[in-house]
Amino acid sequence: MSSVARGPKPLIAVCQMTSTSDREHNWASCSQLVREATRRDACIVFLPEAFDFIGSNTEETLSLAEPLEGDYLQRYVSLARECGVWLSLGGFHERGKDWESTQRIYNCHLLLDPKGSVVAAYRKIHLFDVELEGKVSLKESAFTNPGSEIMPPVLTPAGKVGLAICYDLRFPEMSLALAQAGAEILTYPSAFTVTTGAAHWEVLLRARAVETQCYVVAAAQTGKHHERRTSFGHSMVVDPWGSIVAQCQEGPGLCFAEIDLAYLHRLRQEMPVFSHRQPRLFGQAAAQWGLSSP
């Protein structure tokens, strides 16, 4: 399959899966979904956060993590080459260069081209440290280092793709920065909890699409990973008007969407919100009022 998009509206594929600590089972699931997507002529396949595994505890998570040069990721390099497809690997447990000194990992979103080259690597900036009494208790920072930079959007056959991960969805400043840098597609590979997903998943994805006038692509984990963790699912593609154009329901699977960049640019021309923004005034107000976090 060629890396060049077919026709004026390239097709993308969004994967939904249930990762466990069994990396071989996860690989079998992912590779099957990718091959199915390429048979449908998708030019980019998006995999969710933690596509490689979800450990049952911190110790297992740290023990299963690998560097980017490790054998596990090389399987995906080979898969991209074999299928001739772009791969968005939504959240790899990476042992970084500082592993020996920190004993913590990075949550790394990788974008591979059809030659298997890593064209972008974004390390999650906003870590999920949340305690909802009786519902959700997760502290990602206990074993994960935060990333330190936003990556510029990458030109792909479907458009310019901006990389983010899961909890980044709650921070509109990041999506606005990516859009101003030229992004046409924003990606939020995720493993949303059932509690937060039922309340906020759809509304946040649609809000990010509307305010940036971008397509929003969100591959998601679904179902029960182990006794203490279950994910919401509902992988989704939202268009720049805020309409849901593709969605998975429960269980592993795929959804597909065409990316209509002509439509996107027409919307931006008809409603030029970025030329109407007044960021200078926002900064002035914050300085004048001495604003701090609530």
Number of strands: 16
- Main beta sheet strand tally, sense and closure: 8 strands, mixed
Low-confidence segments: 1-6
The amount of helix comes to 25-40%
Domain CN hydrolase: 10-261
Enzyme class: hydrolase
Keywords: Hydrolase
Family: Belongs to the carbon-nitrogen hydrolase superfamily. NIT1/NIT2 family.
Protein described:
The chain has nine helices and 16 strands. The protein has 294 residues and is of the alpha/beta class. Strands 1, 2, 3, 4, 5, 12, 13 and 16 form an eight-stranded mixed beta sheet that branches. α6 links the parallel β10 and β11. The protein starts with 10 loop residues before the first strand and ends in a 5-residue tail after the last helix. The relative contact order is 0.15. Belongs to the carbon-nitrogen hydrolase superfamily. NIT1/NIT2 family. Keywords: Hydrolase. It comes from Python bivittatus (Burmese python).
Short key terms for the protein model shown above:
alpha/beta, eight-stranded mixed sheet, 16 strands, 32% helix, disordered N terminus, Deaminated glutathione amidase, hydrolase, Nit1/2_C-N_Hydrolase, C-N_Hydrolase_sf
Structure described in brief:
This protein has 294 residues and is an alpha/beta fold. Helix content is 32%, strand content 27%.
Write the layout of secondary structure elements.
Blueprint: E1 11-17, H1 23-39, E2 44-47, H2 58-64, H3 71-83, E3 86-94, H4 99-102, E4 106-112, E5 118-123, E6 129-132, E7 136-139, E8 154-156, E9 159-163, H5 172-180, E10 185-187, H6 194-212, E11 215-218, E12 220-226, E13 229-232, E14 236-238, E15 244-247, E16 253-258, H7 261-270, H8 273-276, H9 279-289
Parallel strand pairs: 1-2, 1-12, 2-3, 9-10, 10-11
Antiparallel strand pairs: 1-16, 3-4, 4-5, 6-7, 8-9, 11-14, 12-13, 14-15
